[in-house]
Amino acid sequence: MTYREFLQTKVELAKESGFGVNPEEINPALKPHQRDAVAWALKGGKRALFESFGLGKTVQEIEFCRLAAEHIGGQALIVLPLGVKQEFTRDAVELLGYEKPVYCRTMQEVRETDAQIILTNYERVRDGDIDPKYFQATSLDEASVLRSFGSKTYQTFLDKFRGVPYKLVATATPSPNKYKELIHYAGYLEIMDTGQALTRFFQRDSTKANNLTLYPNQEDEFWMWVSSWALFITKPSDLNPEYSDEGYDLPPLEVRTHEIPVEYGKAEDKDGQLSLFTQAAAGLKDAAKVKRDSIAARTEKMKEIVDASPGEHFVIWHDLEDERNAIKKALPEVKDIYGAMDYDKREQRVIDFSDGKIRLFATKKSLSGSGCNFQRHCHREIFMGIDYEFNDFIQAIHRCYRFLQREKVIIDVIYMENEREIWKALLEKWKNHNHMVEKMIAIVKKYGLNGTNKEKKMERKMGVKGTREERTVKGNHYTAVYGDCVEETREMEENSVDLIHTSIPFGNHYEYSANYNDFGHNQNTERFFEQMDYLTPELLRVLRPGRVAAVHVKDRVLFGNATGTGMPTIEPFHAICIEHYMKHGFQYFGMITVVTDVVRENNQTYRLGWTEQCKDGSKMGVGCPEYILLFRKLPSDHSKAYADTPVTKSKEEYTRAQWQIDAHAYWRSSGDRLIRKEELENLSVDNLQAVYREYSRGHVYDYKEHVALAKKLDEHGKLPAIFMVVAPGSWNQMEVWDDINRMKTLNTTQSRRRKQMHVCPLQIDIVERIINRYSNEGDVVYDPFGGLMTVPMTAIKMGRYGIGCELNWDYFRDGVGYLQAAEIEADTPTLFDFLGDAS
To answer: Are 287 and 387 in contact, with CB atoms under 8 Å apart?
Structure first.
């Protein structure tokens, strides 16, 4: 396989594993958009229907299961939330004209029936003995239960449904809280491993575990990938402009908020100290206390709303049993349901309210918030309280706010003054949900349901434009190339490099660019090393005989919820690297261990917590140090093993003291490194002022560069109107003072747009020691993963010639700036320049 062919295998849309269905085989009762969706899902085999409320997901699920079961032979299973069985039964019989689906509680009941479609509840699969692998096709209704990766339902279903030939999930709210929740469906559908998808599309916050956000430069590709296995539509015309939207216009929606004032000065903390009031947003315990203490006030407001509209039907949503009792006492007419109630009685009350036989219905979102259709006789909903669960909230709203609703839907939300932040959080999640749906619909409209042009669209991100000469910047002491290091190293002469020093990407841990050539853009560690198989032989070829390749690596933490072990484990990445380089002819001759900060690492991974250690020390490992792996290309003469051109030092310049410290396999580092542009842009203004002053003193002044920097700072809100942040520094400190700090009275906040991407960026002092030990002055030092060009920049400062290759354009551009600064022997700003006193 050529390198280009390997890269093309990275273009990954969901594979089709189903069959094409003749449109005439689909039940004619289905509307055009429903027929298209069923045919698309059957061809894909494992797909998701993320359609808006009221578009008929129920009949699509039934038809998908029927046709899949007929095609492959066998039975199909539809898994439902509690209280939804009657909706499927009604649609199967009355709309589609099929036999009534059979509801089964156990596998024995399943085996005793020859019904083609079996209905059951989530609890029967998760906690009972219903075995999904017995069925040829399955569908999960209201599948948003899968969105939480660590939940018992998700972990159980991931294993129990693995290998089922035809799988469908259906929900209108697939990702109510964060976009990364979408990948959990991909894991369940066996589209892509959850850990792989996280690495592919989401960036990690190096200071806080589990804080993942979508890479800005990966957003288009992420939505394109999702659209290859999930269908988002809000109305039929989203799928085909020729389809009629008649009957699919949502009614007006009015959300009325009722914020009830709190009683000040009554709150008391655990130490007996009085405060103004308990803040519900502070935590679960405080939120629960606010709920309990405010039942009477919220019930009074609820009764006031109901009494003001005596002829209208209401569904009253509550969360606590005490709330249910208060509702019953305030409004004796209310019919309620609760978890301990007989299931048949509970189901009948849901049906009666849906049919208009009950005027006031009190229920929990967990019981009736999903799958129930109340729009025929009810257009009023009251939320007795709020919490952070947006999925439950939006699902409950859409029990009445649906197609075929003839009245304006009025939602009354009751909350306490000290729950205001919770309400704001719900509104923010609502906005994000709408943005996601709009993004996906736009893709469907642009590329069509089957998206024949999607793959070509994604392929355009492969490679870089321009000839090698156009992408190369040269100085007297350096060469920097913008491109793929495999292709660029192939262009280098054999035996032309004296030292290779680099920090390789850590498997599929991060992606550094929106480019398929990116080594971080791989499915897993195995695929990463498949790409390395194209690079490493070239590195051996360009290295001079007898010389060294020093490779900076770190082992990877594998989290238990991704591996299924339930505990964090370690991938011995450094050991895999040793095996890889030796396979390609490098001679391994040692490893330097660089100590790291275990407290900081725990803040990133939460795997070494003191509390957990005290609970059970057996699950506790240790911190992961960094390693410099040392490899050598064999010299031409093996008799003494000296390099063809030895690295020589006089004992005067390389003392016994330095030798002893360097020869020790345990190194410390100051941690100083080059600063990235995004970090510079987000410095607090007082630090920025001091740093720019020092920068301008040591650099040749460039007016255009000065203006461009000030403009960029202004775009990020870092250019105050009352003083100058980027004033040029004085070259004559005797006559002109430039260090008067006018910022000391201002309170500024550092806001970071993007966090550190590399799991352990290469530190400058480590690079200096490696270059000093393994190269001579005048030697060529090469870093194929140049990044900000730390290695070639340090090489310049130490009298060597530096070469660096980088695929990320922003890093390349900034790295060239550092190389130019080093070449004119000016001081180059590093991370530590920003950590001192700015005065």
So the answer is: yes
How many CB atoms are closer than 10 A to CB 611?
6
Q: Can you tell me the mean pLDDT for 620-629? A: 84
Q: Write phi, then psi, for 193 (nearest 5 degrees).
A: -60, 140
**Spatial CA neighbour of 143 closest among 46, 227, 74, 20:** 46
Q: Give the per-residue pLDDT at 279.
A: 53
Closest Cα to residue 243, out of 449, 96, 88?
449
- CB neighbour burial string for 186-224, b if at least 16 within 10 angstroms, e if fewer: bbbbbbbbbbbbbbbbbbbbbeebeebeebebbeebbbb
CA distance 672 to 694: 17
pLDDT of residue 746: 21
Backbone torsions φ then ψ of 730, nearest 5 degrees? -85, 140
Which residues, including other chains, have CB under 8 Å from residue 226's CB and lie 6 or more apart? 182, 186, 440
What is the full DSSP assignment across 358-375?
A: -SEEEEEHHHHSSS---T
The two structure tokens encoding residue 825: 């022997």
Residue 4 buriedness (CB in 10 A; 0-12 / 13-18 / 19+): exposed
What is each CA distance from 800 to 312, 477, 772, 779, 822, in whole angstroms?
Answer: 84, 7, 10, 5, 12
CA nearest to 635, candidates 544, 539, 549: 544
- Read off the pLDDT band of 705 (50, 70, 90): low
Q: What is the 3-state secondary structure (H, E, C) of 103-144?
A: ECCCHHHHHCCCCCEEEEEHHHHHCCCCCHHHCCEEEEECHH
| Both structure tokens of 453 | 């042009």
Q: Is 224 helix (H, G, I), strand (E, B) or coil?
A: helix
Q: For residue 790, what pLDDT band results from cuts at 50, 70 and 90? A: very high
Backbone angles phi, psi at 6, to 5 degrees: -60, -45
CA torsion, points 697, 698, 700, 704, in degrees to nearest 10? Answer: -60
CA 40 distance to own-chain centroid: 27
User: Terminus-to-terminus CA distance in the chain, angstroms?
Assistant: 59
* 645-692 per-position pLDDT tens digit: 999 989 888 888 888 778 877 777 766 666 665 555 555 655 555 666
Helices (H), 586-684: 598-605, 610-615, 656-663, 677-681
Contact 413, 255 (CB under 8 A): yes
pLDDT score, position 667 = 76
Answer whether 0.85 is exceeded by the pTM. no
DSSP string, 148-179: -TTSHHHHHHHHHTTT-SEEEEE-S-S-SS-G
Q: Is the pLDDT of residue 752 over 90?
A: no
Question: What is the average pLDDT value for the chain, to the nearest integer?
Answer: 82
- Asked if pLDDT for residue 574 goes beyond 60, the answer is yes
